[in-house]
Amino acid sequence: MKLFTITRRQFIKMVSGGLAALGLTPKVKGTELFSSTSLKKPAVVWLEAQDCAGCTESVLSCLEPDLKTFLLDTAAIRYHETIMKAEGSIAESALDEAVNEGGYILVVEGSIPAADARFCRVSGKSSEETFVKAAGNALVIIAIGACASYGGIPRAGVTGGQGVSYFLDKHGINKTLINLPGCPCHPLWFFDTVTAFLNGEIIRIDAYKRPLKHFGQTIHDNCPRRPRYNANKFLSDWNNPGERESFCLALKGCKGYTTHGDCPLIKWNDGVNYCTANGAPCSGCTEPPFYDELSPLYAREE
Ligand code: SF4
Ligand code: SF4
Fold first, then answer.
1. 8 A C-beta contact, residue 71 and residue 133
2. HEC string of 194-230?
3. What whole-number distance in Å separates Cα of residue 139 and Cα of residue 175?
4. Which is the most buried residue in 180, 241, 245, 292, by most CB within 10 A?
């Protein structure tokens, strides 16, 4: 499946052709991103707070589309702590420059500590301080992964990590936010959403700000083990090959019936497989209660 339908050349042609729809979202007009005479690629500023860089790894590992194509044809990543070559004051200057110019897509990976800002600092500044400054000049904010969306795993710890929406509310910042949860986020959720935004498509979101295109159905809706669920065939013994291959994993803690995502349809690792098809219960990684309120992950919910 090829999700990139616009090259830089096509993009320039569309801009010069005056397509007003380019860059439109329900709240943001593309003309705020580019002037009609600008040939600059849209900028992306990618901040990391309390994360494992797993969402970065997920995006980097995707073969179709790949990050190289994204960078050449679609957007310019102006700041990214994990993948950028610069460090120290040069990296800080790159961030300051991009933020001062404004009008970028702000991607946030990882949760921001709510218990005490000192739990996460980069370049002597708290992640909350850096986020607030960057959010103020952003065109749109994408929270990538469970942690940036809803707090994720760090929310269960002493830092009290919270997602982007918490800090937007706290500081009274009114910006368009799209949550792309998951642990990690699926690379196609990211590439597809950014491309749709830049193409001016209306991105419909649910109550938790997840794009309905990818989060409109549950894992259970499309699970290949669903026929066995309907037939009350539940796996009780991992060592029984007759059960292991196709029986429903509900007794082993599967959260698929309340978890939204198109994993069964697009699969992971460039379409190779995904959790329940591979024998692992869905841990509910795209839902706001993940992780602390859904653990233990491999035990049946009471
Ligand atoms: S394995 Fe999970 S998602 Fe699949 S049918 Fe059973 S409960 Fe539903
Ligand atoms: S199947 Fe469930 S646990 Fe696996 S990636 Fe999808 S939402 Fe997350």
1. no
2. HHHHHCCCCCCECCCCCEHHHHCCEHHHHCCCHHHHH
3. 7
4. 180
Answer for the pair 45, 134: CB distance below 8 angstroms, yes or no: yes
Of 248, 285, 290, the residue with max ligand 2 atoms within 8 A of its CB, to mutate for a pocket test, comes to: 285
Report how far ligand 2's centroid is from the alpha carbon of 282 (Å): 5
* 50/67: higher pLDDT: 50
Instruction: Give the angle subtended at the CA of 108 by the CAs of 105 and 114, to the nearest 5°.
Output: 135
- Name 259's bridge partners: none
pTM, two decimals, is: 0.87
Superfamily of domain 8-214: NADH:ubiquinone oxidoreductase-like, 20kDa subunit (3.40.50.700)
- Which position has the token pair 């642990």? 183
Domain ranges of the chain: 8-214, 217-278
Give the model confidence (pLDDT) of 246-276 as tens digits: 999 999 999 999 999 999 999 999 999 999 9
With 90 as the cut, is the pLDDT of residue 134 above it? yes
Query: Which comes out higher in pLDDT, residue 146 or 15?
Result: 146
Contacts of 170 (CB under 8 A, 6+ apart): none
Maximum CA extent, the chain: 65
Q: What is the pLDDT of residue 39?
A: 57
- In ligand 1, which atom is closest to the CA atom of 254? 2
CA 246 to ligand 1 centroid distance, Å? 10
Quick check: 114 and 156 in contact, CB under 8 A?
A: no
Query: Closest by alpha carbon to 278, among 254, 299, 258, 296?
Result: 254
The bridge status of strand 76-80 relative to strand 104-109 is: unpaired
